[in-house]
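Hi there. Long-time user, first ticket. I'm pasting a complex I've been working with (about 548 residues overall). I'd like to know whether the download I got is complete or cut off, because the file seemed smaller than I expected. Thanks.
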Amino acid sequence: MSAPPFLWRIRVYYEDTDATGLVYHADYLRFFERARTEWLRSLGFEQSALRRTDSVIFAVVSANLRYLEPARVDELLEVSVALRGRARASLTLAQSISRDPATVLCEADIRVACLDAASYRPKRIPPKILAELSDGD
Amino acid sequence: MSAPPFLWRIRVYYEDTDATGLVYHADYLRFFERARTEWLRSLGFEQSALRRTDSVIFAVVSANLRYLEPARVDELLEVSVALRGRARASLTLAQSISRDPATVLCEADIRVACLDAASYRPKRIPPKILAELSDGD
Amino acid sequence: MSAPPFLWRIRVYYEDTDATGLVYHADYLRFFERARTEWLRSLGFEQSALRRTDSVIFAVVSANLRYLEPARVDELLEVSVALRGRARASLTLAQSISRDPATVLCEADIRVACLDAASYRPKRIPPKILAELSDGD
Amino acid sequence: MSAPPFLWRIRVYYEDTDATGLVYHADYLRFFERARTEWLRSLGFEQSALRRTDSVIFAVVSANLRYLEPARVDELLEVSVALRGRARASLTLAQSISRDPATVLCEADIRVACLDAASYRPKRIPPKILAELSDGD
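Hi, the file is complete. Here it is re-exported in full:
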């Protein structure tokens, strides 16, 4: 699990800011999810397809966020995804949002559970995904 | 169709504003929909129940918005809903957002279509809803 | 600090849900902030006024979220705010979102810092706020 | 004003959808604004810089939206921007969102006003912007 983290760039628009002039704190969770979605896509998996073919969805079950520096409109941010652990029905990820490699704006530890798309009950992560995750992440 | 409009109060929070210091323009559409939802609820209909029991959803098919005055965080706004027309599978509504009766911030003409919840194809509005709409709106 | 928590009711609208059929995880942070805003308002403080008169804003510096049960559209949720600690320039709050007293959907530990509204640097919480917080919370 | 429209690609994430399974109607306004922001950036202008150096912001004053086909999560959409008119203090734009060139999902006529960033009153569009707009758009 020492592969370099997956990186995804996100531009900040007015929609992401609030009247304090800074990025609204809840929007960091949206940025983190976009990066996780693109990380899965880079491994060959699209969540809408997984839902149709395997009847699974991924849901956040815990998120620990540390806001270190504010972000502003028009900034181009880099969001990282690193796999920290995997269980039968959940994944643990370390994520960060940076302005540049030396300036981390927000760090997060996020656990996502694999759920049945109809019953919302925990469900084993499809083996084809686990196989990709063991190749280096 | 000369009944007084339905009114619904909405508080502006930081989440609704952007870095210009004003309410973000797309959020007015969220405010308008909250008021339409509460208008339907006041008539005895909950959209999640309609979806389960009648397999219908309502989708916006057109929206004409005029932004007249900006709104700011902490303001308490009043959102109106007035039925302007109904067809077999759609409703036309006139809506506005006001700071006080004399100060309209945004006006909208919105048409919503009744769709089948599974196929997303146009579907006749359930008669029980039309019956309530003819009672004065 | 053993006063009963402040409670605020929030209705779930379509805007708060995603294609899984459940409330989108980032929106819980919006719900938590609405309740904190109303808690401050119940103590006599409006954030927009504090910004103008005292040049302070409150910013979330950490949030630990545990998602226990999903919420769905049309539900009426109850959001709580309990003060757990206060420092010179920050407050620590325990918050939860419940469907009913027996069913907690999400729990959060949230720390907000008091910042200067122009420089975004830490700033002492205005004494008039601390005075209200010591009266029971 | 017969130049080809500016095009910007946008990926649909779960954050953009609602419990009907489709993209939430208000989010199209966010997509349209992202494209307008990138169009201005492609002409050499960043809105945060314009605000600092010229004390101007752009605000939507009217938006006429026609929703033709729904969009779903994971789709890659193309958003267009075409200048249709310019006045002393406002621009009129025709925009669309397409799945592919043959499938338009949403069309919009949007007017944005140039405002003073402090007073929010109409203000002449900076000549350097008008100069770029006359070069072909």
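A couple of notes from our side: Chain C has a mean pLDDT of 94. The radius of gyration of chain C is 16 Å.
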